[in-house]
Amino acid sequence: MKLLGIINYFTISLSILLMGQSCTQEPPLQNTDWAKYNLKGAVKSIEEASYYVIVKDGAILKGAKEENSFSKQILFNRKGKVTFYNTFEGDGSLYLQNRYQYSDDGVLRKISIFKLAERYMGKDTFIYNDKGLLLEKISLSSKDSINNKEVYQYNTEGKVSQFQLYSFKGNLLTTIQYQYNKQGLKEKITEFYPDGSLNRMRIYRYDAAGNEISSHWINADNSFFAKWHYKYDQYKNQTEKLTLDEKDKVSIKREYHYKYDKEDNWTEQIKYENGVPKLITLLKIEYY
After folding, report:
1. Which of 124, 116, 142 is nearest to 13 (CA)?
2. Are the CB atoms for 252 and 239 separated by under 8 Å?
3. Can you tell me the distance from the alpha carbon of 83 to that of 96, in angstroms, rounded to the nearest whole number?
4. Is 67:58 a contact under the CB 8 Å cutoff?
5. Using CA atoms, how far apart are residues 271 and 66, in angstroms rounded to an integer?
6. Which of 20, 112, 192, 219 could form a disulfide with 175 if both were Cys (CB 3.0 to 4.6 A apart)?
7. Taking a C-beta distance cutoff of 8 angstroms, is the pair 34, 76 a contact?
8. End-to-end CA gap in the chain
9. d(CA 164, CA 176)
10. Closest by alpha carbon to 124, among 105, 147, 107, 103?
11. Which H/E stretch holds residue 3?
12. Alpha carbon of 8 to those of 2, 96, 124: distances in Å?
């Protein structure tokens, strides 16, 4: 994933776990970023870096740092909210920094983005309704001109029913609509082109614990686009991801093996691809 994509993706949605392979649904009745990142305990910070695998005498060892990858650091306040998101170069020097600002009641109001911790790159501002639901996120450049705007609508249960992205000129780029099952989990996502025509759909299935176990992308003409199956451990971390072809044959099998600390947060993840260890990701966690 490119660096800019990491930053944009992170600021659009904090509900996806950056460091690990967790299920995509937020735990019910949880509104801290600790919960959204599937972290247990009063976490002060997390630092993550990935390395290639060396197999020596049957042992899996950490090798060179993953090429073109960036180390990441996320800092939390005592209320479990993200305060800083830092991205580091391969030599450990700070490259990009997102600074989060909240109102007195804990509502996210602004994310300021800096390059090399000094050069101001722009900011994201947030508009909420009287129920505390996000209505708009506006991304501004360093000169306060609009880069893009996100607009959200909600169903009667307060879940996002529609997302729209607009360009800096105010042109609609995409519309995404969401449908949910009786448990309140995403059941179907439908994506539309700017002219309103159908782009593709994504169908989700879950296990009894609410973990996403399959997702299936379908093109507008009902042809196959992509399909995945997932498995999880007791800590809701993803342990297996199968990429399937249009005949439901496995084309890629990825497995994830973890080591955990005393709080049941993972600190080491080994990624296997088709049975071969490929990558070691280390997660350093500091607690309050």
Report:
1. 124
2. no
3. 14
4. no
5. 13
6. 192
7. yes
8. 31
9. 6
10. 147
11. helix 3-12
12. 10, 12, 10
Q: Which residues pair with 43 in a beta bridge?
A: 287
Residue owning tokens 């991801």: 241
- Look up residue 47 and give its amino acid: E
Write out the two tokens for 170: 């105010």
Strands 82-88 and 94-102: antiparallel
What single-letter DSSP state applies at residue 69? -
Strand partners, 285: 46
Within 8 A by CB and 6+ apart from 201, the residues are 188, 189, 190, 191, 217, 218
| Of 206, 204, 164, the residue nearest 188 (C-alpha) | 204
User: From CA 74, how far away is CA 84, in angstroms rounded?
Assistant: 6
Per-residue pLDDT tens digits of the chain, which is 288 residues long: 333 333 343 343 333 233 333 343 333 335 799 999 999 999 999 999 999 999 999 899 999 999 888 999 999 999 999 999 999 988 888 899 999 999 998 899 999 999 876 788 999 999 999 999 999 999 999 999 999 999 999 999 999 999 999 999 999 999 999 999 999 999 999 999 999 999 999 999 999 999 999 999 999 999 999 999 999 999 999 999 999 999 999 999 999 999 999 999 999 999 999 999 999 999 999 999
